[in-house]
User: What shape does this take?
Amino acid sequence: MSGRTCLAIVLAAGEGTRMRSSLPKVLHAIAGRSLLAHVLEALREAGQTQTAVVIGPDHAAVAAEARAVLPQSQIFTQTERRGTAHAVLAAKAAFAQGADDVLVILGDVPLILPQTLTMLRSALDDGASVAVLGFRPADPIGYGRLVTKGDELIAIREHADASESERAITLCNSGLMALTGKHALAILEKIGTDNRKNEFYLTDAVAIARGMGLKTRALEVTEDEVSGINTKAQLAAAEAVLQQRLRQAVLDGGATLVAPETVFLSVDTKLGRDVTVEPYVVFGPGVTVEDGATIRSFSHIHGAHVGKGAIVGPFARLRPGAKLEENVHIGNFVEVKEALIEAGAKANHLSYIGDARVGAGANVGAGTITCNYDGTAKHRTDIGKGAFIGSNSALVAPVTIGDGAYVGSGSVITDDVPAGSLAIGRGRQTVKEGWAERLRQPKSAGKTKA
Ligand code: UD1
Ligand code: MG
Assistant: This one.
């Protein structure tokens, strides 16, 4: 396949009505990435040279997603849904560049692996003009059946059009197909609508190619890789398969997952060596955890960086922009957002730290809140190195606590605190001696009954 150019056509015009959602089907996500993005990433890794995405009308968001993942992708709109071959031909203008191979791939088959796409193309290298990816689903109802004779693929019969004996075939069409660029248009333009659904079936390409004296082939992969997503249940099933793959990859990379089946990862989660993840942790997109850090149970981490040897949780929440340097401790019921927590700093209990810097070695006491929002704008809190923030303090931003300063417990800090000083901002305590005892004395004491 060396040096052969490839046009990949991604069919993403489906409305996804069975998802019962206002979101276009291919924009639903698994492991923090849209179905379409999974497919486009697989194509990128397989090294395709040109990508065309066929979208439905009013699918500007799908086009935007395609461009965000593969900026050079060409977008085509299929204005009327008249079948899979019709959808491929919506991208006809893309054929003008004369790619050697044409790969048709469905936008709702997110678990496809790059090496499988390469394998499918290699069948063209071996002399086939049309190569189809088959699989044996547990339940074949609804799928096109691959009619084979020995090694040869004779035709694809759609479920609706298949005879009883054809329906007994277990090898089914995944919907992924490779065609030689030289013959692709000639084959596609011969496809008609002579079938039950009156649609232009891409699957007819097989019989047509054979009629032209060309070779056709079927290759087989496991169901996991090519099962398409039409319902929310199938979306959840694909998520489960992908999570298994991701957990295996982080375990192979040297992370310890105490109970892997309870840890949820995103495709881009990076866990270093000797990172320990306790049961029930969720990693949203954009997380890096460096070597030797521990993520304790029930933590939710998204868009955050956790430095070497840091300890997070249990029950911690790190939101986008949280950057923990080495040996930081973020404890239970602490939320960190858009904040740099420098080396060795600690916030162990019940705090909100947002739009802030916490200097190296500082200690943020239980219940401390950075009041970063005034109802219209966000403001920053800067806590110096080695500062000590007493429990239950409210730091009203913008505010700076100098290096080594102390804030007395229960303070509301509205003015900057110079380095090395103590700030107390709370009501003074008064003591009324004997007050409680007097309160408890019976009202009638000393009186006689009438
Ligand atoms: C198709 C195959 C079937 C295969 C199955 C695998 C055909 C005729 N049938 O059937 O052999 O077993 O996929 O899942 O190809 N699409 C468009 N425009 C259209 C029609 C479809 O973009 O006009 C897109 C859909 O968004 C979807 C894909 O093509 O991503 C497949 O279409 P779908 O209607 O789901 O075909 P199936 O009946 O599932
Ligand atoms: Mg389908």
In short: The mean pLDDT is 96. The domain at 232-423 is CATH 2.160.10.10 (UDP N-Acetylglucosamine Acyltransferase; domain 1).
